[in-house]
Inverse folding.
């Protein structure tokens, strides 16, 4: 830097200081500005870097998908207006016309091809999570600017669902965009309702309205996200009127927020938290008889699993621990969502019956067990370990609850140090969890990715494989419900609860539509009339 | 020659400290857990995904080899790439430094001025009502946990009165490639509460030190000579008492300032202040090893520099130190 440029840079920064000083006093939030305090830390601007809600939720303002999931998890047209399976292994997607990226370039089928190729061929781990969604794709091609044809490996009836997770990037002129390049933010363009303005990792994301949006004109002209991990700080920010929306409000703070004039919306999450058993080993750590002598794995006996499930008081968890912002669970998704079984309803605790069953299984005096789980990862996780341990004491099972940070929990669970633990699963559809948690683990297909306990039930595996070949619709839902009935009868896990996503909003918002996947977006907020 | 020896000794110490710090940080964060589970989506990742990510990050290697690679990177001036944010770790830490620095500096200036003032006030009037009030107040201020103090400040200063924002950093101005918020009114308003939360315990600490020093100096012979000579109270206070009590104050200011730069974790978390402390705690939670090690190394470096500065100030303020050095 030579002398003159340095002087110029200096005077420029002095000028910007003065301008900032003069304008700062007047920048009270205008009626069209939306300020959100979110717990989702945006790690990167690359929409294909990580499949976590943390990124997808915020980046969905800028980028769009071919297919959307509405609040009932049903598929809705996004950048694709329609899709159909033309043969067993071939899908055809018709794309929306007159859609433009934020830089003015038109959106065409070639961009879809590029996006899928980027995920399949270009991205390397750790940013490889999205490859799970493209695994079933054999080839993708554009037959004309508004038609994409996808050949699949075998029958893939859920391909549109898989594509509902993938954000469309524009094909640039110089090969695949690297994560570093996208993080620079200079060429970050999507087709979404908001344009990228500024980003500071772990701090803020600023967006402006895309006036050329193909859909309904976005309600807010500016949206600023402030990343606030501490729940108390989010609640305080909303209480003080610093922000208009705060997501992931702890249930215990709801009353305080209401007293301060904020409103609260909630929805049961499309996910389940449950206890999972180690079923792949004869000897398991942390399980002993009452005199601390090691015993064979008691969970291999389905009667023991059933007895423990019976002796869980879900109402205590839901009412006391989650302050009513939870739903007692008997299966993966809350009753009523596609693929759930109406026959499975959560039962109240039945201690006497459980005790009898335990005696029948050869444990009239119960046993000792260490009950493991993450603490502070999910609403009510650490506390529910305590509550369940107390319930189990009534049937003679002495459980010692141990909650540890999530990363430690994962490491120990993967190392096989647990015999029973608190787990969780969520997904686009209920069969994602049915496959991940309960199907026999298979490295080649990726099935049973969350089946850390090695539960194996060949009859169930077969039923699930069959159900997953059925096209989306009532028949598929019925098949999934039936096999859920079948497998839950074997008690492979103890379903605990579906916690609720809770968001609070202030007077400048008149309504906030919650999504069971737990997304936080400006599109969900309706502005107050001014 | 003597000066050269002192500097060489200092540099050697600093180097040793940094090496030990990086090793402790590296081994410590490694033993906590496997960062791969925070990078892949554990709800959907297949064992294959996890295996590939582990290999790519070099986490399948034995620990000594990972440390060796880390040292190799360090020799080329790189702390590695953040696992979580996918940016160079040291750049990431540096980008948060201005936020922490201005918060700590603001808090320390307030604490030093107010604390010294209160200490002088109390120390020159020992046993009076005002002295008793100040001493009692410092006891409370020192025993209050900082998370509680922060929440009370938010409750009073933001939620009930609405005078200040409850958190965040507000608008900033970029100078010399760094963002500064003390240059805008909005930024200043955001600075007040977290700075107070950091300053209040330090005001108490400094006030107690200043008071004790003042009481002692007031009894000293030279003050009586000054009085006998007819020098005004005011001149005695500022020309003679203040310099005499300043050594312990400067020591504590240096140490506390370093502590704030490094570990203002609680206050930064509660006020969502995007500084180094918050980055450190986030990174520990996410097991973002490169960032944790980069932060800890920077922290060690900060303490080395601050201690050197404090020593230098000693020499400036107290001639006796100069002679012995």
């Amino acid at each position: 830097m030579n002398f003159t440029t340095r002087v110029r840079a200096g005077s420029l920064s002095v000028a910007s200081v003065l301008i900032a000083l003069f304008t700062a006093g007047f920048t009270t939030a205008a009626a069209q500005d939306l300020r959100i305090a979110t717990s989702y830390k945006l790690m990167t601007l690359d929409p294909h870097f990580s499949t976590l809600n943390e990124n997808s939720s915020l980046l969905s303002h800028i980028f769009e998908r071919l297919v959307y999931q509405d609040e009932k998890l049903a598929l809705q047209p996004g950048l694709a207006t329609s899709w159909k399976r033309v043969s067993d292994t071939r899908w055809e997607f018709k794309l929306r016309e007159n859609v433009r990226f934020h830089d003015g370039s038109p959106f065409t089928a070639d961009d879809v091809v590029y996006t899928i190729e980027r995920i399949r061929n270009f991205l390397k781990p750790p940013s490889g999570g999205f490859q799970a969604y493209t695994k079933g794709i054999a080839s993708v091609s554009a037959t004309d600017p508004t038609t994409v044809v996808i050949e699949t490996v075998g029958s893939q009836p859920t391909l549109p669902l898989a594509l509902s997770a993938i954000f469309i990037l524009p094909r640039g002129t110089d090969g695949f965009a690297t994560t570093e390049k996208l993080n620079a933010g200079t060429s970050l363009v999507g087709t979404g309702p908001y344009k990228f303005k500024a980003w500071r990792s772990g701090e803020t994301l600023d967006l402006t309205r895309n006036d050329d949006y193909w859909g309904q004109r976005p309600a807010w002209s500016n949206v600023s996200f402030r990343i606030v991990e501490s729940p108390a700080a989010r609640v305080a920010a909303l209480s003080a009127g610093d922000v208009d929306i705060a997501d992931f409000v702890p249930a215990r703070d709801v009353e305080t927020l209401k007293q301060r004039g904020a409103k609260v919306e909630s929805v049961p999450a499309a996910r389940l938290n449950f206890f999972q058993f180690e079923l792949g080993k004869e000897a398991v750590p942390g399980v002993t008889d009452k005199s601390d002598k090691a015993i064979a794995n008691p969970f291999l006996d389905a009667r023991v699993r059933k007895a423990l499930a019976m002796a869980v008081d879900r109402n205590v968890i839901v009412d006391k621990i989650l302050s009513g912002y939870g739903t007692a669970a008997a299966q993966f998704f809350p009753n009523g969502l596609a693929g759930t079984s109406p026959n499975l309803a959560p039962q109240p605790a039945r201690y006497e019956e459980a005790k009898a069953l335990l005696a029948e299984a050869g444990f009239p005096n119960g046993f000792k067990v260490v009950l493991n789980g993450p603490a502070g990862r999910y609403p009510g996780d650490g506390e529910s370990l305590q509550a369940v341990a107390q319930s189990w004491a009534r049937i003679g099972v002495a459980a010692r609850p141990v909650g540890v940070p999530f990363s430690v929990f994962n490491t120990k669970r993967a190392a096989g140090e647990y015999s029973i633990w608190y787990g969780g699963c969520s997904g686009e559809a209920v069969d994602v969890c049915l496959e991940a948690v309960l199907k026999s683990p298979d490295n080649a297909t990726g099935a049973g990715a969350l089946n850390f306990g090695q539960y194996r039930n060949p009859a169930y595996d077969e039923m699930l494989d069959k159900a997953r070949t059925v096209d989306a619709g009532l028949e598929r839902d019925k098949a999934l419900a039936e096999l859920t009935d079948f497998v839950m009868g074997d008690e492979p896990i103890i379903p605990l609860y579906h916690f609720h996503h809770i968001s609070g909003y202030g007077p400048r918002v008149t309504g906030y539509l919650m999504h069971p996947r737990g997304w936080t977006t400006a599109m969900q907020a309706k502005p107050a009339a001014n | 020659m003597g000066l050269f020896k002192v500097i060489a000794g200092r540099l050697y110490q600093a180097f040793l400290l940094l090496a030990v710090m990086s090793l402790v940080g590296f081994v410590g964060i490694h033993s906590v857990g496997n960062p791969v589970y925070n990078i892949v989506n554990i709800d959907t990742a297949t064992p294959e995904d996890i295996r590939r990510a582990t290999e790519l990050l070099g986490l399948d290697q034995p620990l000594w080899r990972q440390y060796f690679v880390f040292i190799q990177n360090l020799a080329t001036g790189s702390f590695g790439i953040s696992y979580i944010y996918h940016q160079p770790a040291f750049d990431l830490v540096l980008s948060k430094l201005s936020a922490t620095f201005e918060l700590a500096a603001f808090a320390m200036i307030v604490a030093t001025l107010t604390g010294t003032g209160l200490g002088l006030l109390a120390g020159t009037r020992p046993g009076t009502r005002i002295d008793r009030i100040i001493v009692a107040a410092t006891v409370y201020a020192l025993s209050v946990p900082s998370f509680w103090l922060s929440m009370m400040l938010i409750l009073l200063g933001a939620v009930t009165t609405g005078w200040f924002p409850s958190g965040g950093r507000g608008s900033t101005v970029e100078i010399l490639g760094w963002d500064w918020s003390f240059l805008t009114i909005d930024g200043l308003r955001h600075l007040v509460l977290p700075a107070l939360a950091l300053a209040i315990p330090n005001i108490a600490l400094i006030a107690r030190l200043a008071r004790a020093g003042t009481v002692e100096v007031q009894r000293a012979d030279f003050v009586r000579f000054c009085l006998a000579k007819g020098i005004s109270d005011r001149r005695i206070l500022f020309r003679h008492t203040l310099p005499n009590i300043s050594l312990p104050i400067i020591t504590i200011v240096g140490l506390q300032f370093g502590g704030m730069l490094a570990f203002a974790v609680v206050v930064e978390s509660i006020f969502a202040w995007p500084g180094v402390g918050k980055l450190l705690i986030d990174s520990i939670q996410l097991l973002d090893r490169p960032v944790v090690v980069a932060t800890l190394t920077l922290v060690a470096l900060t303490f080395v520099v601050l201690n050197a500065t404090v020593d230098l100030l000693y020499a400036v303020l107290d001639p006796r130190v100069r002679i012995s050095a």
